[in-house]
Design brief:
CATH class of the largest domain: Alpha Beta
Largest sheet: 6 strands, parallel
Radius of gyration: 23 Å
Distance between the termini: 34 Å
Shape: globular
Helix content: 25-40%
Bound molecules: S-adenosyl-L-homocysteine, iron/sulfur cluster, FE3-S4 cluster
Number of domains: 3
CATH architecture of the largest domain: Alpha-Beta Horseshoe
Length: about 500
C-alpha cells in the first residue's frame, strides 16, 4: 500500500489545498499516514508570510531527510507559498528535496510524484513571477485548484472551505501573498455554487468562503453582468440543507453596503466579519499601502455595526512595522481599546525579501520593542475579548457542534479514561467558541446552548435538555468524524 504524509502550515487556503492534494493522491492509490517514517511520499505545504514560519518548515524538511537517506525511494515535496517564493532555492537549502510545486500548480502533483519515482530527477512546477510576463500570462500560470471533494479529508465532514477567489492585487508593502498566490482572480459563481451543492449532498452544513480579500470578489461575465459576493451568497443561500455561510478575509475598503445587508438579511450567514486594520496610525498605514485612513476604518466599523446589529468583528495587527514610533503604537493601542474587536491576531513585523517594504524601509524597530508592543496590545485586546464574551452570559446561543473539545482530545492523547459525558465544542452564529458537556452523537448538529460562564476565548454552557433527549443518533455518523489530519498553524 502506498502512503503519503503531509504537514500543513499557513492560512485556510493551505488547509484547503492540502485537502485537495491528498484527495488527488488517494485517487492514485495512496493512503494517508501520520508518521513520515512510514510514508512513500512526504509533503510540506508551506507558508512564507513570516520568516519564522519558513525557518520552522526548513528545519522540519531537514529532519525528515533522515528517512530519505535510509530509503532513497521516498519522494519529498515542498509545495505551496514557500515553494513558489523560493523556487530552485529550496534545493539549495535542502538538496535532497525531490519536488518543488507552487500554489498555482498543485494539480500536477500526482504526475510529478510519478516522474520523480520513474526518473529520480527533481521536479519543479512553478507559476510565473508577477513581473515575468503579461498579466494574462501570469494569471494563466496560477490555476485555481478546485477538483472534486472527498469528505473524508476534511477536519469534519459537515464543514468545508470553498475557494471563491485566488491571489491578491492589493500589494500591501509588507506582504508576500501577491507574489506567492499571483493575481487576484474570482472563480465563476456557477462553479462555486455547484461545489457547494456537491458538498451539501455529501453532508456538509457549513461552508466558509475563502479569499485573501474575499469581499472584493467580483465575477465579470463578459456580457455586462457582474456577480458580487453578496449576489453569490444570496444564490448559495437557497441551497437546501446548507445551514451556515461564512466568509474570510475582508479588506476594509471593499466592505460595501450590499454585502453588509446580505449578512444582516440572510439567516444562514454568520454574523461575523474578520476585517484586519493592521495599525491605528495613518502614517504607518500609508507606508503599509493599506489604502485607507484610521478615520475611514472607524467609519467602516460603525457602518458594519449599524447595518448588522450584533455583528462580531475581529482584526489582525502588525506591530513594529518600519518607522513605527511610540506615538504611532499608542494610536494602535487606542484603536484596539475603542474598536471592541471580538478578538485580534497580533503579529510582529517580519521583513520579507522581494516586498516593497523590504526595498524601501529599514526594519528599524528592535525585536525587544516588537515583543513588548505585541504583549501590550494583546493585554488590551484580551480585556476587550473577556468583556465581549461575558456579555453572552445568561443568553442562549445556537451552536454547530464540531466534536470533542480541546480538553477532551488532549485527555485522549494522554490515554486518560474517557469521560462518561465528554466536553464538546462548536461555534455560535457570531463565531464565538462554546464548550459544553454533551453526548458525542450531537456532533454535526446545531443545538441551543445556555451560556453560564465565559473567558476571553470561550463560552461555557449547557445544552437545552429537550435537544439532549430529542436526538436519536439520526444521520450522525460519528466514526466519520475524524480528528484533524493536518497540523494547522494559524497565521
Ligand atoms: N489577506 C489577508 C491576510 C493575509 S496574511 C488580509 O489582507 O487581511 C494574514 C496576516 O498576516 C495579515 O493580516 C497580517 O496581519 C500578517 N502579515 C502579513 N505579512 C506580514 C509580515 N511581513 N510580517 C508580519 N505579519 C504579517
Ligand atoms: Fe497581503 Fe495585503 Fe493582500 Fe492581505 S490584502 S494578502 S495583507 S497584500
Ligand atoms: Fe496563506 Fe501563508 Fe501563503 S498566509 S497565502 S499560506 S504565505
Amino acid at each position: 500500500m502506498k502512503t503519503v504524509y503531509i504537514e500543513t502550515v499557513g492560512c485556510q487556503m493551505n488547509v484547503l489545498d492540502s485537502e485537495l492534494v491528498i484527495a488527488a493522491l488517494k485517487k492514485d492509490g495512496y493512503t494517508l499516514t501520520d508518521t513520515p517514517a512510514d510514508a512513500d511520499v512526504i509533503l510540506f505545504n508551506t507558508c512564507s508570510v513570516r520568516e519564522l514560519a519558513e525557518e520552522k518548515t526548513y528545519s522540519a524538511v531537514g529532519r525528515v531527510m533522515q528517512h530519505k537517506r535510509q530509503d532513497p525511494t521516498k519522494v519529498v515535496g515542498v509545495i505551496g507559498c514557500m515553494a513558489q517564493k523560493d523556487g530552485e532555492g529550496v534545493r539549495t537549502r535542502v538538496p535532497l528535496v525531490d519536488m518543488v510545486v507552487g500554489t498555482g500548480q498543485l494539480a500536477k502533483i500526482p504526475e510529478l510524484v510519478r516522474a520523480v519515482q520513474e526518473t529520480r530527477q527533481p521536479q519543479y512546477a512553478l507559476s510565473l513571477g508577477r513581473k515575468d510576463a503579461s498579466r494574462h500570462e501570469v494569471e494563466a500560470s496560477f490555476e485555481s485548484y478546485d477538483p472534486a471533494r472527498d469528505p473524508e479529508m476534511r477536519p469534519t465532514p459537515f464543514q468545508a472551505f470553498v475557494r471563491v477567489q485566488i491571489g491578491c492585487d492589493k500589494f500591501c508593502t509588507y506582504c508576500v501573498v501577491p507574489s506567492t498566490r499571483g493575481p487576484e482572480q474570482s472563480r465563476h459563481p456557477d462553479h462555486i455554487v455547484q461545489e457547494v451543492r456537491a458538498l451539501v449532498n455529501q453532508g456538509c452544513k457549513e461552508v466558509t468562503l475563502i479569499g485573501q480579500t474575499v469581499n472584493s470578489y467580483v465575477f465579470d461575465h463578459g456580457d455586462g453582468r457582474r456577480t458580487r459576493l453578496s449576489d453569490l451568497i444570496a444564490t448559495m443561500h437557497d441551497v437546501a440543507g446548507l445551514e451556515r455561510i461564512k466568509f474570510v478575509t475582508n479588506f476594509p475598503k471593499d466592505m460595501t453596503n450590499d454585502l453588509l445587508d446580505a449578512v444582516r438579511d440572510l439567516p444562514k450567514v454568520v454574523k461575523y466579519l474578520h476585517v484586519p486594520v493592521q495599525s491605528g496610525c495613518d502614517e504607518v498605514l500609508k507606508r503599509m499601502k493599506r489604502l485607507y485612513t484610521v478615520a475611514e476604518y472607524r467609519e467602516m466599523l460603525d457602518r458594519c455595526r449599524e447595518r448588522v446589529p450584533g455583528v462580531a468583528i475581529s482584526s489582525d495587527f502588525i506591530v513594529g512595522f518600519c518607522g513605527e514610533t511610540d506615538e504611532s503604537f499608542d494610536k494602535t493601542m487606542k484603536l484596539v481599546d475603542e474598536a471592541k474587536f471580538k478578538n485580534s491576531f497580533i503579529f510582529k513585523y517580519s521583513e520579507r525579501s522581494g516586498t516593497k517594504a523590504a526595498e524601501r524601509y529599514p526594519d528599524d524597530v528592535p525585536e525587544v520593542v516588537k515583543k513588548r508592543r505585541n504583549n501590550d496590545l494583546l493585554a488590551v485586546q484580551n480585556a476587550n475579548s473577556l468583556a465581549d464574551h461575558r456579555q453572552w452570559i445568561d443568553k442562549s446561543v445556537s451552536v454547530l457542534v464540531e466534536g470533542r473539545s480541546k480538553r477532551e482530545t488532549s485527555r485522549d492523547r494522554k490515554g486518560a479514561e474517557p469521560a462518561a459525558v465528554p466536553q464538546l465544542t462548536g461555534r455560535t452564529m457570531t463565531d464565538h467558541i462554546a464548550v459544553f458537556d454533551a453526548p458525542e452523537r450531537l456532533t454535526g448538529r446545531t443545538v441551543t446552548v445556555d451560556v453560564d460562564d465565559a473567558t476571553g476565548f470561550t463560552l461555557f454552557g449547557r445544552v437545552r435538555t429537550e435537544e439532549l433527549v430529542g436526538v436519536t443518533g439520526e444521520a450522525v455518523d460519528v466514526p466519520a468524524f475524524r480528528p484533524r489530519r493536518v497540523s494547522l498553524e494559524v497565521v
